[in-house]
Design brief:
The chain folds into two domains: 104 residues, Rna Polymerase Sigma Factor, Chain: A; 79 residues, Winged helix-like DNA-binding domain superfamily/Winged helix DNA-binding domain (Arc Repressor Mutant, subunit A, Orthogonal Bundle), CATH 1.10.10. Helix content is 70%, strand content 0%. The chain contains eight helices and no strands. The chain is elongated and about 65 Å long. The relative contact order is 0.08.
Length: 191
C-alpha cells in the first residue's frame, strides 16, 4: 500500500489559496484539519454529521474573512479554524439545550470575541451551568441529564434509580433542580 504523502503547507500559502481559489491546496487544508474537528465534536456529544456541518460553516467563515481581508491571525490558521469550530459547536449545543458536561478540548484554541455582548454573556452563563452541573453530584447529575438531555420519561427514570414510582422521581428531580439553581446562583454571584 502506498501512503499518501502529506506535503506541509504554511499559513500564507493556504491564505493565498483561499484568495485565488486554488482548489488543490484548499482541499489539502480541508482534509488535514477535519479529523481534529470531527473528534472534538463527537467527543463532546455530537454526531459525525454535526461535525461536518460545523466544519463546513467554519471553512466558509474563514474563506469570507480571508477574501474580505478582515482576518487577522495571531496564531496558526489551524488554531484559528479549531477555535471557530469550537465556538460554533458551543453555540449549537447551547441553542439545542444539549448539555455535554465539561467541554473537552483536544487542541489549543483562542477565545473568539463575539460581535455583541449578549453572546459573550450567554457563553459565560453556559460555563457557569457547566460548572454547576459538575458540582451537583450524584444522583442529581445523572437524573437531570437523563431527563433533560437524554429525554427519558419519569417512569424509566424511576425504574433506573429504584424509586417507587414516577411521582417520587419527579419529586427528586424538583429537589435536584433547586439544588442546581442554588449552585448556579452561588457561582454567578461570587464571580
Amino acid at each position: 500500500m502506498i501512503a499518501d504523502i502529506v506535503v506541509n503547507i504554511n499559513d500564507s500559502e493556504i491564505i493565498e489559496a483561499f484568495r485565488t481559489d486554488n482548489k488543490s491546496v484548499m482541499q489539502r487544508f480541508y482534509k488535514m484539519n477535519y479529523p481534529m474537528v470531527s473528534h472534538f465534536v463527537i467527543y463532546n456529544g455530537g454526531t459525525d454529521q454535526e461535525a461536518k456541518d460545523v466544519y463546513q460553516e467554519a471553512i466558509i467563515v474563514i474563506y469570507e474573512k480571508i477574501n474580505d481581508r478582515s482576518l487577522v491571525l495571531n496564531c496558526k490558521l489551524k488554531t484559528y479554524l479549531y477555535s471557530v469550530c469550537r465556538n460554533l459547536w458551543l453555540k449549537q449545543i447551547s441553542k439545542k439545550g444539549k448539555f455535554a458536561g465539561r467541554i473537552e478540548d483536544l487542541e489549543e484554541f483562542l477565545p473568539i470575541e463575539e460581535d455583541n455582548g449578549m453572546e459573550a454573556e450567554k457563553n459565560h452563563l453556559f460555563e457557569i451551568m457547566n460548572n454547576s452541573m459538575l458540582q451537583i453530584g450524584e444522583p442529581c447529575f445523572t437524573l437531570l441529564n437523563d431527563f433533560y438531555i437524554r429525554k427519558m420519561n419519569m417512569n424509566d427514570i424511576a425504574e433506573k434509580f429504584g424509586y417507587t414510582n414516577a411521582d417520587t422521581a419527579k419529586t427528586q428531580r424538583y429537589k435536584c433542580m433547586n439544588r442546581l439553581k442554588k449552585i448556579f446562583f452561588d457561582i454567578k454571584n461570587s464571580a
